[in-house]
Amino acid sequence: MSGALATLRGEIGVLARRGSATMAVRFGAIALALLQTAVLARILEPSGYGQYAVAFSIVTILAAPAQLGFPVLALRETAKARQAADWPALNGVMAWSTATGGAVGLVLSGLLLAIVFAAGDRLPALGVSTQLMVFASLLIPVVIIANVLGSVLQGFSHPALGQMQDAVVRPLATVVLLAAAAGLSASGFSPAFAMGLHLAAAAIGLLFAGAFVLRLRPAASRTAAPRLAGSGAWLRSIGPLSALGGLQLINLHVGVLLLGWIGHASDAGVLRVVMQGGTAINAGTYAVGLVAAPAFARLYAAGDLAALRRLSGRCALACLALTLPLVAVIAVWSEDILRLAFGEGFARGALALVLVALGRLLYAAYGCTDVLMTMIGAERDSMRNLAWGAGANILLTVALAPLFGLAGAAAASSLAVGLSSALLWSAARRKLASRAPLPALAPILGARR
Question: How far apart are CA 280 and CA 400, in angstroms?
Fold first, then answer.
């Protein structure tokens, strides 16, 4: 037993070292996302930032299937073709995923533009303007193609570089453009102008990813004609590949949308800031999942459920250790944090930030269960349980946000996170033959039921 544990610890150490660059990009991305949010929030103030947040949430949810499905497909199929040195297949999947993803993005953008112009004067009642939604809709194809190219780079065995266009280049370019524009304009600017700068930054990210794809493309593939024989199977794969991420995006954005639509644009802006803070709270959990994912897959394939229970338990303990101090700090100083980082107008989100932090602590307590379920091939269980959580989030937000505003939307999000996490672990317990009520207790109660 001690030898097996030593081997497991050694493997985790190796995985951590190999994943250090990717993890550094992840943590840098979260820091840049918070910086971008802080700059936008200070320039636009709660009401203007609320309009920006509502528009961004609309395009994020609308584009979620294509934005997530095509990049995941590109990563999987590019890596497979590269491993097999099948250069026609490699060129085929790169061309197909980029062209088809871009075409779907253009269709979605066109549909949104048609709705925007048809709505006309009714748009301000929803918390957005026509010009703002035009710039937001144009983001859809740009972001989809950039994400596909980033995933191709990951398929070329450059995972950190593949994430950089979305995680570093785009938010950093947005911050630089915002700072430059703010320096040139004494009177500030509108949410629509800020969205236009975001669109320009997304285009810079796309050019960055495209340049590196051309540079790092295997030399042997440059003269191979693309083969599209698998395009039918690729198209059928898009739905399942994108469903999980789409449900997670709904959970992140539904509160912002509802607050905007019921006429509380400033509350929507504050909630967007609070939800960004929630993402930062779970940075450690995301990093642990990133490192542990290959070991989850290997142990399950080997049928070693006892080691898998121990690993999931240790991951849960690590997640709690990384999350609990942040939640404690937020519980005491939430108002000061919001005032210092985002401005006086956002300090009223203090209670909402505490409620979201408690939900993120619940998520951490269940460890990397969502990653575990994906790695052991239980995506359908994950999708079903996340769907329950998304449904609960929508219903609770509709019930609580009109009555309690920010706090109601935050409470709805945290309750939904707790529900989906508990349901996911319940399904994982059956897969792992564990009787532990929480993953952290799995090493202690590791005996089979």
Answer: 25
